[in-house]
Specification:
- It comes from Heyndrickxia oleronia.
- The chain has six helices and twelve strands.
- Strand 9 and strand 10 form a beta hairpin.
- Helix 2 crosses helix 5 and helix 3 packs across helix 5.
- By secondary structure, the chain is an alpha/beta fold.
- The strands form three sheets. It has a five-stranded mixed sheet with strand order 3-2-1-11-12.
- The N and C termini lie far apart (about 35 Å).
Length: about 240
């Protein structure tokens, strides 16, 4: 299996286009296609960036033709709940996606809603691929959660190993689960922005903060090659996590 797994896009269409071109994908059909490879997405397609709806449509088209694998992120989950009519706070990036939707006609809005809800509802919480050698999960997964799908697993793959405590800026305190992971599947995840792809044991975090002015990063599997393009967004240093 040959797959290029892309970190959190957050509506950064320009970076997504540039990265797939760099990876050798052809856009002549209006979305990126490779004759030998597929794309993978670690979730958080939308929010904060300028082109969330465009990203939804492209990923849905790829997924619908079985040209890509997708797993939901916490921002995906929040947008899904918004589309369901649940009471969600239109903050922390969702406001940019909602603004795009409000600028649409009702027909256009329903078009994006239908695509996103199908993508979300018909995709697993995490993907186990390549004869169980590769696993894609938005915020990662503990070894003993692999193969399970209960509520605690969902919380972990969407939000990470949260303690229930908060940092001074209001962000959740998360344990560095990757340091304890000793499982066999190689885990590719995102969720927590880091300046460079972070390999720890049998895991890699490829969220390099495209929407915060960092980079958009892909992991080429099975080559284990990291490919990145610079962001066009302003750099926000406090959004990037550093580890001891």
């Amino acid at each position: 299996m040959k797959i290029d797994i892309i970190g959190d896009i957050h509506g950064c269409y320009e970076e997504f286009y540039n990265l797939t071109i760099k990876l050798g994908y052809d856009w002549s059909s209006g979305y990126p296609i490779h004759d030998q490879r597929k794309l993978g997405f670690v979730g958080d397609l939308t929010d904060r960036g300028p082109h969330s709806l465009k990203i939804i449509e492209i990923v849905w088209k790829l997924w619908n033709q079985q040209l890509a694998y997708y797993v939901p992120g916490n921002h995906c989950n929040k947008l899904y709940r918004y589309f369901l009519g649940r009471k969600v706070q239109i903050t922390h990036g969702l406001e940019t996606t909602v603004a795009e939707l409000k600028a649409c006609t009702n027909k256009e809005e329903n078009h994006y809603k239908k695509m996103f809800m199908q993508l979300y509802e018909e995709s697993p919480l995490y993907q186990v691929l390549d004869h169980k050698k590769l696993l894609i999960a938005h915020a990662g997964i503990k070894e003993d959660y692999i193969g399970k799908f209960h509520k605690s697993v969902k919380t972990f793959v969407l939000y990470g190993d949260i303690t229930g405590e908060k940092h001074e800026d209001g962000s959740p305190v998360r344990r560095d689960w990757a340091k304890q992971y000793t499982g066999k599947p190689f885990i590719v995840y995102g969720h927590t922005p880091v300046c460079e792809a972070r390999f720890v044991g049998n895991t890699v975090n490829i969220d390099t903060g495209a929407v915060f002015g960092g980079q958009l990063t892909a992991l080429r599997y099975p080559e284990m090659e990291v490919v990145s393009v610079p962001s066009s967004m302003p750099f926000v240093s406090e959004k990037f996590r550093t580890f001891n």
